Every structure is written in structure tokens, then in C-alpha cells.
């Protein structure tokens, strides 16, 4: 039961983190707005809530000495995935901070990042946080106030990662993967290889067919020339 809860929390954190990265890349672009900045704030706060829940669950389980060896190995694997996800979240938060300083909303300027995207991003955030409608009453200086909050939240995430390392030391190189590297791509590769093989066979077949036709034409032409020459020789004689 605990294992399933940890997996569910980790899956939710992955989705929200991916959503946050998607929206961070639109800062300074044609779809940047006060709504985007507010959605970024709500999404990263949701990610931090999930991160705290993940940390508490996994820390408690990994400190429990009654857990079996197999279960502990699985929880350590989840811990490594969680730590990596948290690092990605921190990197994206720092990126959002830098882009927020470079592209303040209260200073009108030409968009320096042409992302090719337009429109709102509420749909992406809503899907990540299981909310149908996300309507925000954004303040006029949301970007200025939010950047200060973002700095504090980055420090909090950094402190969380440090505390995690102090409480539970799980080196990444000691955790074994459940499947071989690239195993999830083998089926795709095999399908692609078979498709390529079929294409190459078909190409070879078509090439052989063309060669046979050309050979037949040449043989017929040579035969006709031989017949004409034979007729001419008979007449001359």
C-alpha cells in the first residue's frame, strides 16, 4: 500500500514538473502574460507540495528497518527518481527566475524569444493539477512580487535537497535499474528495423524487376538486329 502511494505521488510530481518546464519555456515569448506568471506560481507551489509529501513518505519508509531487502531496494530506486525530479524542478525554477528578470511584464518591449506559440497556457496547468478551470486574479506587479517569492522558494528547495541527503543517503550508483538501458526503445527499434528491412526488400525487388525488363528489351533488340542482318545477307547472296 505504501509503495503504491509513493509511486502515485512520484507520478504526480513528474507530471507537474514537466508542466512547469513547459510553461517556463514560454517566458518572454509571444504567449507570456500575467496569467502565465500566475500559472507558473501555482504550478511550482503544487510541485513543492508534492515534493514534501514524497519526501515524508520515502524518508519514513527508508528509515524503517523492518522493511524487507527487496522492498527497500524498490524504495531506494523511487528515492533516486524523486531526487532527480527535484533537481530538475530546482533548475527550472532558477531558469524561470533568470527569464523573469530578463523579461519583466511591467516594461513593454518586443518579444526577444519567438517561440511560435500563442494563446494561453491554462490548459496545460489545469491538466497537470487536475483542475478544469484555472482563473487567476493576477496583480499588476505579479512578476515583481513573484520573483522575490521565487528566490525564497528556490532556497527552500535547495535546503530540502540538502536535508534529504543528510537524512537518507542513497548514492545513485548503488541503485540498480529494473530494466536494461533503452529497453523501452527496443520494441520501437525492432519495428523500425523491420520496416526498413521491408522497404529495402521491396526496393531490391523493384530493382530486380526493372533489370529483368531492361534485359528482355536488349535481348529482343539484339535478336531483331540479327534477323535483319541475316535477311540482308541472304538477299545479297
TrEMBL record:
Q: Which GO terms describe its biological process?
A: negative regulation of signal transduction
* Alphabetical UniProt keywords: Membrane, Signal transduction inhibitor, Transmembrane, Transmembrane helix
- Kindly indicate whether the keyword Transmembrane belongs to this entry: yes
* Chain segments annotated as transmembrane: 213-234
- Write out the similarity annotation: Belongs to the RGS7BP/RGS9BP family.
PANTHER family for the chain: R-SEVEN BINDING PROTEIN (R7BP) HOMOLOG (PTHR21029)
Question: What name does this protein carry?
Answer: R9BP protein
Q: Which organism is it from?
A: Zosterops borbonicus
Amino acid at each position: 500500500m505504501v509503495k503504491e502511494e509513493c509511486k502515485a505521488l512520484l507520478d504526480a510530481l513528474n507530471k507537474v514538473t514537466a508542466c512547469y518546464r513547459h510553461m517556463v519555456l514560454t517566458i518572454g515569448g509571444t504567449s507570456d502574460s500575467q496569467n502565465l506568471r500566475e500559472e507558473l506560481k501555482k504550478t511550482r507551489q503544487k510541485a513543492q507540495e508534492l515534493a514534501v509529501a514524497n519526501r515524508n513518505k520515502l524518508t519514513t519508509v527508508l528509515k524503517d528497518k523492518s522493511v524487507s531487502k527487496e522492498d527497500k531496494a524498490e524504495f531506494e530506486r523511487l528515492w533516486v527518481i524523486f531526487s532527480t525530479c527535484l533537481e530538475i524542478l530546482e533548475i527550472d525554477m532558477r531558469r524561470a527566475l533568470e527569464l523573469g528578470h530578463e523579461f519583466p511584464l511591467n516594461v513593454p518591449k518586443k518579444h526577444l524569444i519567438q517561440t511560435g506559440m500563442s494563446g494561453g497556457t491554462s490548459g496545460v496547468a489545469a491538466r497537470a493539477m487536475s483542475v478544469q478551470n484555472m482563473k487567476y486574479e493576477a496583480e499588476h506587479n505579479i512578476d515583481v512580487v513573484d520573483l522575490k517569492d521565487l528566490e525564497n522558494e528556490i532556497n527552500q528547495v535547495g535546503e530540502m535537497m540538502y536535508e534529504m541527503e543528510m537524512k537518507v543517503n542513497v548514492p545513485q550508483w548503488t541503485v540498480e535499474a529494473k530494466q536494461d538501458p533503452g529497453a523501452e526503445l527496443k520494441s520501437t527499434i525492432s519495428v523500425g528495423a523491420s520496416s526498413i528491412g521491408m522497404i529495402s526488400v521491396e526496393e531490391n525487388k523493384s530493382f530486380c524487376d526493372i533489370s529483368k525488363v531492361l534485359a528482355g528489351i536488349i535481348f529482343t533488340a539484339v535478336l531483331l538486329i540479327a534477323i535483319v542482318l541475316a535477311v540482308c545477307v541472304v538477299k545479297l547472296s
